[in-house]
Amino acid sequence: MILLLITIVLGVVMLIAALIAVYNKDMKTAIIAAGLTSLFASVLYVLLAAPDVALTEASIGSGLTTLIFFYVYNKIRRNNAQE
Amino acid sequence: MVAPIYIIATLLGVAFALGLFGKKMNSMAGLLSVVALGFASFISLEWLAGFWLYDRAAEYIYTAGFKPPFSINLLMGKDEALFTSLINIAGFFGTVYLWDKLKKIGSNGYVTLMGMILGLNVIIMTRDLFNLFVFLEISSIATAGLIIFSQNLKTIAAGFKYMLATGIISGILLLGIIFMYYFTGTLNIDDFLAVHSLAVKGFGVAVFFVLISIVLELKPFPANGWGLDVYESADSGIAAMISAGTATASFFVMYKLLPLGTPQFHMVLAGIGLATFIGSNLMGLKQTNPNRLLGYSSIGQVGLLVTILGLSEFLGERTTFIAYSILISHFLAKAGLFWISGIVKRSEIKEWAVLRNNRLLLILFGVFIFTLIGFPPFPSFFGKWDLVLNMASNNQYFWIVGILIGSLLEGVYLFRWLGYALKLDNAEMPAFEVKWNKVLPIAVFGAATFVVGYFVSSIHPYAKIINYIPLAVALAFVLIDFLPVYVKNTLAILAMAYYYYYLYPTLSSFGAVFGAIFMVGGIVTLIAGYAFKGQRRGFYPFALMMFAGLIGLIEAKTTLGFFYAWEVMTVGSYFLIIRGKKSMPHALSYMLFSMGGAYLMLAGFAIASVGQFNLDMSTLSHVLVHPTWVFILLAVGFLTKTASLGLHIWLPGAHAEAETDVSPMVSAILLKAGVFGLVTLFLAMGDQLIGGDVSVIYLLGWLGAITAVMGNLMAAFQEDAKRLLAYSSVGVLGYILFGLSLMSHLGWLSAVSISVTHFMFKSLLFLAIGGVVWRVKTKEMYRMGGLIKRMPFSFFSVLIGIIVLAGLPPLSGFSGKWIFYNAVMAKEWYLQGALIFFSGMIAFLYTFRLIHSVFLGQLKDEHREVKEAPFWILVPQYMIIGVLLYFSAIPNSLLKPIGKIISPYFPTGGLEWTGQHAVSTYGYWNGLVIFYIVIAIFVTVLVWLIINNRKAQKVKQFNIVFAAERPFKPETSHYAYNFYAHYRKAIGILVEPKITGWWEGVAEWAHAMGDKFRKIYNGNGQSYLIHIMAFIVIIYLISFGGF
Amino acid sequence: MLRNSLILLVLLGFAAAVFPLVHSYEAKDTLTGVAEHYANYGKEEVGAANLVSAVVVTYRGFDTLGEVTILFLASAVIGLFLKVSETHTKDSRSVFFKSTEILVTASRLLVPMIMLLGAYIFINGHLTPGGGFQGGAVIASAFALLLLSRPQKQFSHKLISVIESISGITFVFIGLLGILLAGGFLDNHIFAMGKFGTLLSAGAIPIIYILIGLKVGSELTGIVRNLKESQKVG
Amino acid sequence: MQLFSIEYISLVVGFLILLIGIWGILTRKNILKMVIGFSLFDTGTHIIIVALGYVRNKTAPILDQANLQTNTAQKIVDPVPQALVLTAIVIGLGVTALMLVYAMKLHNEKKTLNIEKYNDLKW
User: Would the keyword Transmembrane turn up in this protein's UniProt record (chain B) (predicted)?
Assistant: First the structure.
């Protein structure tokens, strides 16, 4: 039962994060929100008895992907600033 | 046999190893890549050979040492061997082609390219659905990389759009795959095929998502904007690989997964394919960028292939043959065309005239275009034939119509493009750079079209019995094209003569008559070729190809053979016609009408074959289904070649603008192919009734009569001498059609004898007038005049010609007409007869004008020094005159044998001959007597004229004394200009170009439609994604009939 | 707005289209199909305690090879983009926050530990959660951290590609050994199976996972490095 | 079908995130936002896959305890979807990284991230 509750909460939080990622005007927030969605998903994977996936999602899905997003975003921002 | 896993291991291993290569070792890296791709090609080709020659069994490749479904397995079967061979060969030659570019880019470039080829190999061979997904991703990532080999705004934007689209598509594919796993507990394709379908709706939906993703990979209309952008922007070498490689592999995946779909889905698939084929070719009409144009064509062709897959239920075991022959044609041609585009480097198809600077590339360009459209001897010809035949046997006429319309649209832009390359001015264009490593792949693929074409025809049960020797001889002339004209001309004449000698004993009945027209006529007109100097490149292969086709018509034992010969003839004549200086638009309309006519014939033959045990020509005499339709389709098909009213608009330009000796070939000889077709058709099928009471032949009779009147009328109002003759051919062919439609002994006697004499007098006139034009450098009659003094021999030719043409006694034209009126009386078609009679009067008008404006009157100043026509152009004229006079003096030498040929079919109502004295029901006629009488009268009048001519007063040509104003154009006051102004006032309304206008309207409408449709490709990548999603939803709704 | 409503319509249509998938979902009680086989025989057949690893590396090892190739290609394509910037432009600024003394010190401390963690993850891939991909990603993140803290620091491009290439080639080679020595391409029985549940078990799986770890790590590092070096690309 | 079970909720959440992702892809004009949409699309798909492999009250497919080693099929969740997700995640990373680099290069060309501005190729 407690698992079910956690799942629901996680689900709601993920959906909110996803909506923020799509709708927030600030790109940094959006990127972080997308990363958070991924991170919460990895928690969900633990609940779903998938530790391997959880580890992968945490390190690759939320970690590296977000990192690359930021790299690129900063490049673009700096590029803009130079103009 | 090398195990197929080594294809993968080699490509992958080399790709990984390339990372070790530094920048200075780019050549080494390139060499290694080429070797690896060559090895991969070798493995797959070796398997292919094993399957074909030694009938090997298909082999599974198990990975990880477990049997499927527990581990991933690959399959190397006949199909896989073929497709991997295609992919690897494309990769190999593609790399050779891109050598310089790759060398500049370095190891990452090689890696990307190998990655793509590897991915495509695996998606062809794999039997595991998720594995398919992984390697699809590999190939799409690699493709995204290939696109940016040249980096600029366009390629990057196109690459990004491509990534967006494939991202969405593969996401949906993954969704489908995982649910398929969920419902079945397996990922193995063979297991899925065994399961086929489950009661759960979810499974059906999952399968739908998998299949729709593969469909989307094939770029269906309208969800394909991203694909077009890629084709347009990517380097041509890359576009070639995408078009030849990715499309081929994706097609195979669809083929592999096809059994997963329900029969309803297959129909949906066929619909998608057809919409893509027609839509994409329609939008291609307005396109001027060569690579984007090729993109439209590529997408269209893949659409056609998808249609074939969707229709596989109807096509049965022929599906493979049809799909593969069309696919391989597309593979070779599209790669070749993209490669050529990469050498030419012109972004407007109009600038492709520059291609003429390189003869080899120009030839290859033509080869690829004809391969793409499906002309013989290329593989797609046989594929299309089988496709239409099989669809007809399943009563699927809708699909036939759609496929043929799509093909025709494709023909429009491809032939326009070819025309530009052949004819537009290229004087100020800088030459392009040609490197051997770029030409080699193109040449290999060009040669392969012939090899594969031969192979395909050799495994086709009916194609293999066609006689390919005439065509081979014609093609052989390409090889000796460097020789001077007189050598080639002699060889051509000898070849024709030998073949006629060889064929003569086998000819009988109408074959003998038309064989004589085609071959003896061919030899006679070829003689004029000696008048040309230099090499006259590109003339003999096509002239002989046309004659090869004509011979093939007579030799044809099967409908396929007939259609094959018909198409060969069309190709040859197209190239002859386009040789004329201003022929480009006319050659295009000739080609399009020919294609349209050919497709009608194809449909007709297809319906005629339904329920038959073979394709013999004789099956036409017992057509089982829709005989009226078969008759109409074939008749209209033939009528496009005889240029009946409504279908005639291509003729005047094509014949008038052609070269001196080409005009007689196409006008006097080629048109008879249509007549031969009609003769064959009428004999085999007899009359047919529309709706049980209207006779088709009766309608054709009217058409013939009206064509005769209109053709002659239009001839009378021409200023251009050759155009006049061309229109006159329209009129005469109208007579012939009318004569055949009479369906009586006399009607046919006149029609066939006019066919023979028309060959003679029209060759004569075209050669004579052509000789005049050769000297005076103009075709406008009012610019000539008085040439009788300078060119008496030509004058005499024209005189004889028009006497025969107008059907005046004493020459043989008269005998034809005389029989004609007898036939009309017997049939009691008085009204039509009156029209024919009327048209005869008009013939007087234009024949008079021809001789009057050109040869009589005052000589123009600029023509004072003009010489007689070249000797070699006069030679055939006088040979013809000799025969004409012989036939005229001894008419039964012509009419009696023809009558004998006709008798078995129309035994009653023939002529009774006593010597040269012919008796019909309505009177009698003795050719010899008439001949002498008329000559006597003629001589008398001539003597009288010579005596009295001294009193004649000379009037200046540009006499404007009676005009109140200074003429705006000098020709307006020339008496020979608008010669029949008064007639034009009275009946000019009849000759207004309404039909031309109508056809132009059709063309404009199609172009406008295409232009409107292509606006959906607004360039916004996001819109393309919306198209994709909307496409999925709509196809879902169609497939499941709701949510 | 019209455009958005249309998109909404399409999306609702798509949602309706996928609805039968959700609707047909039924909770399972037991494994079926291939999964059942893996569960029951995976231990004997492959010998890896972590069944996911058994599936990833052996049963579906060919997919994994493809997966490695994808990263390899992605890295190559990114390299294609950046080939113009052959001459390395020095950029002292950090990527998204100022490189501080703390960060530098922390990274000195952390990087080796993170790398060790990564190595641990892929070496134990056949026993515990994680494996080559996760381990590789962890290693790459260590390098990313290094890049964050010390932007001037140069990695040897050469070294990265050599590791990448050698591990890739070895992977393919081990796969081929499977044909020669065992049942087929990528069969893990080319090495002794060892005792179930110990480090040296499951045949070639640990080796392959190490190679994958190295390869993925170097590929991801390559991607990050390439991104960093693409400061000014025309 | 039990609506309130963690696998079913996860499945639904997965689909919702997937739809949000597609919505983002189709409506956001900013290229980076579109890529974020893609990564949400991926995440949603991954959640769906894992949820499909879940079997209620069963443990992870790691046979580190002796009692798991017999009659295993009754005791663990499905390892196959997990393996597939691993692959999918890595592929997703590759694709996302590549898209981002594309976005960066596009920005280099026109100094804007608005997808509508990159319509030089059309018709």
Answer: yes
